[in-house]
Amino acid sequence: MLRTLKGFLVFVVLVPTMVSVLTGCWDKLEIEDRALILAMAVDKASPEEQVDEHVTHVKPIKSLQGKMIRLTVQIAVPGRVPLGPGESSGAGEGASNLPVWVVKVFGYTIDDALNTLQQQIADPRTLIHLRVIVVSEEVAKSGLGDVNDYFRRNPQVRRSTWLLISDREAAPFMDVAPPLERVPALYLLAMLQKANDMGKFPADFVGEFWSSESKLGQEGYLPFVSIRQKENILLKGLAYFKDSKMVGHTNALEIGVFMGIMGYNPGGYSPLVEVPDIGVVILNVLRRDTKRQIKMIDGEPHVFLNIKMETSIDEVLSEATIDSESKLKKVEEEFRHTSYDAFENLIRRTQKVNSDIFGFGELIRAHERSYWNEHVKSESDWERLYGELPITTTVKVVVRRIGLTE
Amino acid sequence: MIRAYPVTAIRATAVVISTIIGVGVLSFPKIAAEAADSGAPLVTLAAVGIAFAGLVILAVLVRRYPKENIMQFGGRLIGKRVARCFNLLLILFFATSTGLSLREFGEVVIEVLLPETPIKFTIMVLLLITVISCRCTVIKFSYVHSFYLPSIVAISFVMFFASLKNYDTVNLMPIIGNHPDGFWKGAMSIAALFQSAFVLCLLIPYMRNPNKIVASTIWGVGISGIIFLLIVVSSISTFGAEETKHLKFPTLEAARSATIPDGALERLDGIFIIVWVISVFTTLFSTYYFSVAASKETFGLRDHRLISSFLLPYVFIVSLLPRDVFILTSTGVPIYRFGLLLTIGYPALLLLISTFRGHRRITDASNA
Question: Quick check: is B367 in a domain?
Fold first, then answer.
């Protein structure tokens, strides 16, 4: 290439061009120069807080009046986030040495608020490490449309981010700093991931929620959380949605009930049952095996749920001992009844608000194509039909282990 | 003709596969889902069928004239003038398709990788690399393809198996789709992604055993067809057809959600993007190389290297013309459809004439 003059000229022009462009320095951004947002909380702004900073608009927007949100973000402070297990989180004690910085901003939409945030902090904000978004129940009830759109559109946000609904103001979640983890946002994240591993919660990332929301025959659900004793986060239940609006929530054990209907494993909940003649027994659900079938009866779909649970005995609170096969049968029978009631109850409650979080509609779409094509043209058609969908549940319970004592 | 390092059948297969897998893999599940929702894999299968038919016709045709390329024997078959028209159309189509693919590449890069870098530079860099690479001979061309092929095939399979745990088979039912209204339209659009494999007609004069070109094509389209199917199945079963319609690059999102268990590799999308850039390069390399080689034949030049630089401004301008992504797709789709007509129709026409004129496989005659 270098032998001829032409080759030499090509070399002289080409090599510097390639070197300067191929390295991608245009998008260079030092890690210390970014404001890494780890977690975010979305609340409705109270009337006295509604101060418009006019960052994204010159004149007030009529359709948005009085609809301001408060965004509380947790930003990682470079150099203070502990990297290894042995490293202490910065030097000394005190609030100024926290690995994160919590900032409050206001705006009409998420992006408006984030722009206001940018107007207040030096480093460019980045969402590549955003792991948890907490939204207050109040906001969720008026609709998650804005939240969904912004985070879906932004290429920095991963689908494996957790979106949580809190039963109270969401902002305090940004301040929760339990001693188990040095970075508060990572504690929240670890909590959800471990809950998922233990079978306490399904792997319901925001991506899953979006997928369910898009499907015509399924509605989304999200973790419902609360704060206890200032520092504890309580996984309180499931929040269920209809058209991205929250329409209700369950209690904690009903997460297990939901997972039973879905057939998710491992089983992580320990239901308490009062067995006649024996007393209070706490069982631990080890495994669930659920068969979900659709049968057409007289041209109408009918759901048959066949739920089988394998359990072990965790605790017995009574004078009586469980020392025989017949007593074990009694426990199984009693748990079968209570769990049947729980399954039915949760299904009826979601039917009342037409929120098919179980995806029965998807089963019908998948297996009864002609019925679906004829009856369901839009999401609201299925919502209506779900309200009257006949569902038959059968429950089978087996106690596999009783522990080390009779 | 130099037969020192002839192109083997395996290398020809490599050219076909790595050419087919290109910029379109990121977005085609969306096209398939829009065509027939949960029937998307079937749409893709139909597309593979169409592409298969077209490319096998081409392979059978070029096998009859193992010492020439399509520009040379085309003139003999249907007359110099007509053949020249077709050649010009082919050159124009492949040069334009290079430009449009470059733009699509640029759009992805600017959206997910390098938001600050001006799109012109992203496009220019890849175009420059392509232009420089296109100065090589056909034999080197086939070596470049075989060199990159393993990584392209490997990542597709790894991605498929890594995202297995996210799969929900309900999303794939019913197999024919709930509303397969746009089935054939979608199949055509996806089949258009396969047509860059037309470049295989340049290989035949350099092949060690030209008879194997048909087998190479069948293998090549078969393997890339399987990869396309794996990709569409993983997107649809991970997200469901409705969500796939909402995603601009479903394959990329599927790669983002895929993790190798136990946290061995949290983010597969980094590797995926790297390999994707390579696969875009190999596709552009093929389409551009075809335009260059075809121009050389059509204009009766001795050297193709000059044309390689000469075509650059045209391709670059084409890539910058569309104002936004909507115009990019709305102009791209008819162009690719037209290309399909050209890349399948022209060889089919030639094959018909060749059969009519009683040309058989020359090698058969010489063997007999």
Answer: no
